[in-house]
Amino acid sequence: xxxxxxxxxxxxxxxxxxxxxxxxxxxxxxxxxxxxxxxxxxxxxxxxxxxxxxxxxxxxxxxxxxxxxxxxxxxxxxxxxxxxxxxxxxxxxxxxxxxxxxxxxxxxxxxxxxxxxxxxxxxxxxxxxxxxxxxxxxxxxxxxxxxxxxxxxxxxxxxxxxxxxxxxxxxxxxxxxxxxxxxxxxxxxxxxxxxxxxxxxxxxxxxxxxxxxxxxxxxxxxxxxxxxxxxxxxxxxxxxxxxxxxxxxxxxxxxxxxxxxxxxxxxxxxxxxxxxxxxxxxxxxxxxxxxxxxxxxxxxxxxxxxxxxxxxxxxxxxxxxxxxxxxxxxxxxxxxxxxxxxxxxxxxxxxxxxxxxxxxxxxxxxxxxxxxxxxxxxxxxxxxxxxxxxxxxxxxxxxxxxxxx
Length: 405
What we know:
By secondary structure, the chain is of the alpha+beta class. The chain is built from eleven helices and 15 strands. The strands form three sheets. A six-stranded mixed β-sheet has the order 13-12-11-14-10-15. Strands 3-9-8-7-6 form a five-stranded mixed β-sheet, with helices on both faces. The protein has a four-stranded mixed β-sheet with strand order 1-2-4-5, sandwiched between helices.
């Protein structure tokens, strides 16, 4: 059950960007599992991709082509095309070549993306058979359908949109993402596509996608696994009647950055809210660190602990498990006598020991909520970090045990 997620809000069309959806029946007959996105000529695209050494064939090809003239993005679900070697690369290139032929563009103008089961050959014939239907379906208002088309174990589509005014011109930022398991990105998310009609220089766009991903997609975790296929693309179509943003400064850039960061944050948190089997949306906030990295080390130790995650599922305020995770996070010369831990607004541990004011009833009341904050004060410095995670339920085990059936 998705925590705090409902129907998508309005996803505003982005001038110069269209999406089309079709069924290839890769994993299930009739399932709309191929999404084609078309960018206006002159669009700029920047992105971040997985750091997993076993990165999928489409990731390798996308890396090669980013920064060039890109007109189309091709996504399939049901098959990751990862762990498939030279054959996987050839199949991914073949699907791009066929789309390029149908669309009348160079093969290098197509970026491929895949998600699904690892280690199986990409059914390229099925994908090819769906491409013309996807092209025929291209529409600017197809964001919600595309958000559904890129889903795998997701239970709900994920998207967000923002608009702002500058010199009387409306700028739009709209994005979608997919992901529910195998989530601990080290760049972005499983798959994410965010587009704007602003005109942005390539270098500024690349810095913007990296910074936005670092504060959103790189701060979420469900199970601690970094996918082989993670990709997040930021597209600037340049259709807005405003000057190009050539520097990371000025009023227009500041407005765009805020809108982009808000969309990134919303679609990233939606992945956690729809985590496989999730019943809790958990914020882990670490303050008072000597460095940002040690704050992240503590936060991830807490977020990845199976004991903490199962206690969250059971609504059991077993706070000793939190102390244990902080203690093994690897922070050098950690003075536990300075550490305070809060569960929501309740102080459960003060100066490394059970807080004298704490009662089990207080902890149980917080743990019964769907949205919970675990706050840890290290007392070492001025650095802070926040990440978002889930509990670990019976349903998570069931979903992943049955993933290939």
